[in-house]
Amino acid sequence: GVNPDLASERQTASFSVEKLTAWLDGGAEQTRLRRAVVEAIERDPVFSRENQYFQSQNERYEAAVRKAVHLQKKMHEMGWSHEGPESKYIYRAVAGDIAFLLHRVFMRSISVLGSDEQIAKWIPLASQYQLIGSYAQTELGHGTYLQGLETTAVFDVATQEFILNTPKISAMKWWPGDMGRSATHTVVFAQLYVHGKCYGIHPFIVQIRSLQDHSLCPGIIAGDIGPKMNFEHIDNGYLMLQNVRVPRENMLNKFCEVQPDGTYVRRGSQKINYFTMTSVRISLISGEAVTPLMKACTIAIRYSAVRRQSQLKPGEQEAKILDYQTQQEKLLPQLAAAYAFHLIDDYLQELFDRGYREIQRKNFDTLPELHALSSGFKAMVTQYCTSGVEICLRACGGHGYSLLSGLPSLYTKIIASCIYEGENTILLLQTARFLVKSFMAASTGQSVPPSVTYLAAAKSRKCPAKNKSDFLSPAIYTEAYQHMAVRLISSTAAKLQDLIQSGVKKHDAWNRCTVQLAQAAKAHCHYITVKNFAETVEKLESKAGIQKIMKHLCDLFALHGIFSNTGVFLHDGYISGAQMDMVTASYLDLLAIIRKDAVPLVDAFDFTDKSLNSALGCYDGQVYQRLYEWARKSPTNKQISPAYEKYLKPLLHNTLSKL
Amino acid sequence: GVNPDLASERQTASFSVEKLTAWLDGGAEQTRLRRAVVEAIERDPVFSRENQYFQSQNERYEAAVRKAVHLQKKMHEMGWSHEGPESKYIYRAVAGDIAFLLHRVFMRSISVLGSDEQIAKWIPLASQYQLIGSYAQTELGHGTYLQGLETTAVFDVATQEFILNTPKISAMKWWPGDMGRSATHTVVFAQLYVHGKCYGIHPFIVQIRSLQDHSLCPGIIAGDIGPKMNFEHIDNGYLMLQNVRVPRENMLNKFCEVQPDGTYVRRGSQKINYFTMTSVRISLISGEAVTPLMKACTIAIRYSAVRRQSQLKPGEQEAKILDYQTQQEKLLPQLAAAYAFHLIDDYLQELFDRGYREIQRKNFDTLPELHALSSGFKAMVTQYCTSGVEICLRACGGHGYSLLSGLPSLYTKIIASCIYEGENTILLLQTARFLVKSFMAASTGQSVPPSVTYLAAAKSRKCPAKNKSDFLSPAIYTEAYQHMAVRLISSTAAKLQDLIQSGVKKHDAWNRCTVQLAQAAKAHCHYITVKNFAETVEKLESKAGIQKIMKHLCDLFALHGIFSNTGVFLHDGYISGAQMDMVTASYLDLLAIIRKDAVPLVDAFDFTDKSLNSALGCYDGQVYQRLYEWARKSPTNKQISPAYEKYLKPLLHNTLSKL
Predict the structure, then answer these.
(1) Closest by alpha carbon to A163, among A175, A154, A173?
(2) Between β-strands B220-224 and A152-156, what pairing exists: parallel, antiparallel or unpaired?
(3) Contacts of residue A637 in chain B, CB cutoff 8 Å?
(4) Cβ contact A559:A477 at 8 Å
(5) Interface probe with A: pick from B169, B312, B648, B655, most Cβ of A within 10 Å
(6) Of B68, B130, B318, the CB nearest to A148
(7) Strand locations in B367-428, DSSP E?
């Protein structure tokens, strides 16, 4: 049965959980579809994650390969396709714990960068798994700065081949997923040399393992890079190339080609490369950042409604920890952020789709804005969600620290999202470059992309709020965020100009402003997130049942942001000290209001117990029984440790001196 | 040889690294002693941590037991004792990776809570490891709130025994270290019942495993609680008691006793219990929080001097990432914090020693202050150091995420320090209670403990700084911190009073202020840390060689705190917006200054390569070679995975349909 402490939380929901779930999914039909996929996956024992927390890196890898292979069969059986509506739910259902994710990147890079002939040759082989692909870009000594890659590909006119080499240890490919133990092929990024001239980075398809017996091909040294903070199921690999020859046709040549005589031909726009990165950054926000935060909130909030600790009122039963203001202040802003970022993901997706339609018409005008937004939001959302998951973990005390809570693995995985697909600080600085440029353009009356037109608008100098309830007005707080973003962008742009005018070299001036530029980029994304949340809530008029609670969450998200960053709002007096006290009062009031719906709000995320894989987060709230049951299954309880015979027994039997 | 990029950093040190090391150690003689201990431990292969990152929980446990047993022999050989000057260096040298730490807590609890007879009986047995002890306080359903523990001990007059029981699953002992697989005895905390009356929590010595064959004793159910985020080497355990009988003499009875007829006698002061907690909290700051942060800084800063990425100046070699302002802003404040907290540890230690001398004279007056400071600093320092280690990890990009960097294990271990020995939020609220009380007393002219006399002093209303260099004056910034702490404490105390006067019940009013109370407690500790750092630097006059760089670090620590919390200084206009711009300018200037000495400043921590156990942090800076060498040793490269024959081969050989 359900723990009465959790059951009671559900009886007082101010809204229909089912309706909120359907809205989050984009309609009841989507909910139905998602549940069908999840059910089919979870019913199949091959996809079980029951023993995940007890497995070694080798065991995790084997299980992930097994699942990936089995998934092909399953999809065939179920009539699902990679392009079908089910596909986005499959990844959620397997909880990312599956191999061959880089195989898809391998295919995508060929589709985007390859010629029609190359696509016709390689994509069918890959689709039918007659090879397993990976994507070898990052090197031991080079990550984000692609121009610095050191792997070389020299064209040999005589044999019509490229000769690939790893000239030094820092040039070794390092980190590519699926490459350590699985892949037979990979796309290698290398500096192209023809007749002694370097043409920069180009992609080459290279076979690394035999299709017959999986042994390494001649000239290939490859293996697994060893243990990581998470991703034990993925065989991130290393690759060293020693005079490896591939035919001329293996350079992906949609945008440039080396002709048989060595003539280098460039064609088409290179800008499309941006678009691939943009697409990846936007696509990871939902699955790799928002979903884990939603799961962490579900686990921590359900547990906080069941865990009782200390007396709140003297003489009464120990209180649910969710009733403590400090616990609410830890968890409820994370819950509000999960909703805010779910909505910003919709916003970015729509922007992306619109941009994509334009690009298909050969109009590349939206690319700079899309690139800036995808970079900034990737950085801001992954950073926010990572610290949100950490807060949830710590809010569960000692039990949160047990792997069985599910929280440590959520954390150790999500933190990687701050690093991969562009390190967050570097991404924020790319956004900042766009913002400074747009601000300059706007100040001189030039037209700027829609998301930054606000930089040109005239601003009021003081926040008009008179009492704490004024701060529950989206107009008031959205305006405050806008003012703050404009101030940070304009003052940093001014500092940059001043430095340059005082004779500091441009690159040095830029470097000296980067701490503030990164802050300005975050402020911009924060503003857009608040504005988008408020606008979405406004459009919910037809759904009165959920509009009210969404309005509360929007208010909480906005006021939490002000409460946690008071300085940037107080700095120029836009918000006064007295007004900040009103913000604090409104913010703390909201915690008590949203606390009442906290459990229904996480129930609406609709995670199954299997997908949470948490002894603390189960729907029935029977946390202590489950912790005990799961702990007993641990391999540490399955055998008497050899430590007893070897060390403890001699010690206890007083043979210490003879050891 | 040493990587030239690291060697060049050392040639320009503005101070003597050796002298700074000696100062940190408390004198050159201490440095010599520490190095001798570290060398003796590291030379012994039993203490090797070489394979640590590749080991399973079972393997880690076995190694930790082996090391603990071997350490006894080693200490005997070397003539070291647990009370000797070497003892504090032994733990540092084994890097905490050792069993039987709870055995020491078992002994300490008997020494503190036991009668002379009990001490005479149990301590010799424990010292000679004729038993292995643990400490069973925390339960599945109860952590910090000891009064809520549910285990029972009923006195049976007929047999002169206590009958111990675990009445329900939430009463199961959960988490005690060394209990899952090693301990033969433990101190169980249980609610004492005599003749049906409950006398509250008392400690009982209970044998849980046979001294002959290590089997569980009758009525005992015990085992390992399974995998955790770290501490794989420790067998944290569970324990269920079913009518377990222990003789009357097994209740630790220094402060209270059950006489043969069931008469309950209380004697002596209970206050001393506070002192034990105080002692543990202060003792963990150095080893469990500051040392890991120092290690993380060493790894991240050395790596940042070796890692080159992107062009800073067009046309030049790629720049060391340590030359980027954003990287400096991540790492250097953590470095300054490591020094600040090393010094606050000295401060607390001295306060503690003084308090202990008083207590030995039966003067308990310093206890409330000591309790408040130890709680607040435990919370503040562990929180700060945990986020510092995370920043270091992320600042190393992808390679920081590899276990081989050493950073993930530092992080997953240090985060536990925010939870154990008192959850940080609860500890901050204990400090806040003391601060509010002291503030009230000070306002009405009563005397208050030395650390809080500042609450009564008259304050200036505006910061007198006129330009950015004024903010390099310790008087200016210490005053700002003091003002801010007073404001947060007094305004929260006022809010609390207002609520109570408006009719809100006391406990409810308190709960409604807790978010702000916790903030006020942090502000107090931050102020004391800055003040102590500044005073220590001032006293360094005789050591001119290191005074200058310590002054820079002190300035950086103080200004980073203002820069990161601008709101609390701007709120009442004590610092104006224009002055805050000066703070920012001074702060950013300092980064460039300290950057020049960054590597020497971490070298001064004097960690050996073995103690860092990091491919990125070695003294010679040969990071890429080491990553490659270590990765090849991974068990994932030691065997062909069965996944190939079972899943990959059938897939690649196009037998998908038959799977």
Answers:
(1) A154
(2) unpaired
(3) 223-224, 226
(4) yes
(5) B648
(6) B318
(7) none
Measure the N-to-C terminal CA separation of chain B; round to a whole number of Å.
Answer: 54
- Rounded to whole angstroms, how far apart are CA atoms A175 and A142? 11
Is A649 an 8 Å CB contact of chain B?
Answer: yes
Phi, psi of A502 (to 5 degrees): -85, 5
Arithmetic mean of pLDDT, B211-239: 97
- ipTM, two decimals, is 0.97
A to B CB pairs, distance under 8 Å: 377
Residues 6+ apart with CB under 8 A from B46: B66, B67, B70
Contact A341/B at CB under 8 A: no
Helix axes B367-395, B325-360, angle to 10 degrees: 160
Judged by CB atoms closer than 8 Å, whether chains meet at B61 and A641 is answered as: yes
Chain B positions touching A642 (Cβ under 8 A) are 62
What is the distance between the alpha carbons of residues B514 and B493, in angstroms, rounded to a whole number?
11
Q: Is A444 annotated as a binding residue?
A: no
CB contact under 8 A, B511 and A643: no
Catalytic residue, chosen from A9, A369, A390, A421, is A421
Inter-residue contact A407 to A296 (CB < 8 Å)? yes
Query: For residue B402, what pLDDT is reported?
Result: 98
Please give the residue of chain A at the shortest CA–CA distance from B386: A390
- Residue from the list B72, B228, B308 with its beta carbon closest to the beta carbon of A402: B228
| B406 in A contact zone (CB under 8 Å) | no
For residue B393, give Cα distances in angstroms to A141, B53, B458: 17, 16, 43
Instruction: Note the pLDDT of residue B655.
Output: 56
Q: Is B567 known as a binding-site position? A: no
Stretch A505-518: mean pLDDT, rounded? 97
Q: Which has the minimum average pLDDT: A579-593, B77-91, B490-504?
A: B77-91
Nearest-angstrom CA–CA distance, A6 and A598:
11
Q: Flag whether pLDDT at B658 surpasses 50.
A: no
Verify whether the Cβ–Cβ distance B223 to A181 is below 8 Å: no
pLDDT of residue A655: 55
Radius of gyration of chain A (CA): 27
Asked if B632 is an interface residue toward chain A (Cβ–Cβ < 8 A), one would say yes
Ordered DSSP codes for A608-656: -HHHHT-TTT-TT--HHHHHHHHHHTSGGGSS--HHIIIIIHHHHTT-G
Which of B299, B245, B286 is CA-nearest to residue B410?
B299
- Please, what is the average pLDDT of chain A? 95
Instruction: Please indicate if any CB of chain B lies within 8 Å of the CB of A644.
Output: yes
Domains delineated in chain A: 1-23+273-621 (1.20.140.10), 131-267 (2.40.110.10)
| Chain A contact for B313 (CB, 8 A cutoff) | yes
- DSSP class of A205: E
Q: Which residues of B133-165 are buried (b: 16+ CB within 10 A; e: fewer)?
A: bbbbbbbbbbbbeeebbbbbbbbeeeeebbbbb
Question: pLDDT > 90: what percent of chain B?
Answer: 88
**Dist CA B67 CA B74 (whole Å):** 10
Q: Which two tokens stand for residue B114?
A: 């036991």
The verdict on a CB contact (< 8 Å) between A394 and B412 is no
Of B567, B633, B654, the CB nearest to A570: B567
* Token code pair at residue B279: 């002692």
Query: What residues have CB less than 8 Å from A114, skipping those under 6 apart?
Result: A122, A252, A253, A254
| Three-state DSSP class for residue B84 | coil
Q: Which residue, B481, B459, B458, B643, is CA-closest to B555?
A: B481
Give yes or no for a contact between B88 and B118, defined as CB atoms under 8 angstroms apart. no
* Known catalytic membership, residue A161: no
pLDDT digits (tens, 9 = 90+) for A264-293: 999 877 677 678 788 899 999 999 999 999
DSSP state of A224: E
Angle, in degrees to the nearest 10, between helices B474-501 and B544-564: 40
